[in-house]
Write a structure and sequence with these properties.
single chain; about 180 residues; mainly alpha; about 0% strand; globular
């Protein structure tokens, strides 16, 4: 999960440059909340501040992300599992509505990267990996800018869930971003 913070530090406030400051603040707090419960509280507060002017899918995805972080920081195994599951369901709804949204795919992908295989979510991880890979190859920077897409590839290259063939393909794709 520290790798998520790495992405934030590298790309600063430009994670998804075209958006409003409210959305950008929520995005930043998502990444900071990976390691900090104080940031998680701020993340919750910022999510509550967003209103119906923000698109519903964005709220679904980030409310889902919030719940997965509640799971991460929880001590109770029951809470961990059910908050994770509930959060992934919300992110899944946003993805179902916008299957080509790289931002939502990466949120879920980055979460699932750290979820143990025995919990049964690997199919979603690999589905998101394939779709993210496809979307990055399109070189469309309207939703996620080029620098962030490069960071997504760097993140995936460090994933322990991907095999050597998948990483080799990613390395080839990464060269397009240099």
């Amino acid at each position: 999960m520290r790798t998520l913070i790495f992405l934030l530090i590298i790309f600063g406030g430009h994670l998804f440059a075209f958006e409003t400051s409210g959305k950008n603040e929520v995005r930043k707090l998502f990444y900071y909340s990976v390691e900090s419960t104080d940031s998680l509280k701020k993340f919750e507060t910022e999510l509550k501040k967003l209103n119906s002017k923000i698109d519903e899918n964005f709220l679904l995805a980030y409310n889902g992300a919030y719940l997965t972080l509640v799971a991460k920081h929880s001590i109770n195994p029951y809470t961990k599992y059910y908050k994770l599951k509930e959060g992934l369901e919300l992110i899944g709804k946003a993805i179902q509505r916008e299957p080509n949204n790289l931002e939502y795919r990466f949120i879920r992908l980055s979460i699932l990267n750290y979820v143990p295989s025995f919990l049964g979510f690997d199919d979603l991880f690999f589905e998101d990996f394939e779709k993210a890979n496809q979307l990055i190859r399109q070189k469309d920077y309207s939703i996620v800018d080029k620098q962030t897409q490069k960071g997504i590839i760097e993140f995936l290259l460090r994933s322990k869930k991907l095999n050597s063939v998948q990483k080799s393909e990613l390395k080839k794709l990464y060269k397009d971003f240099e």
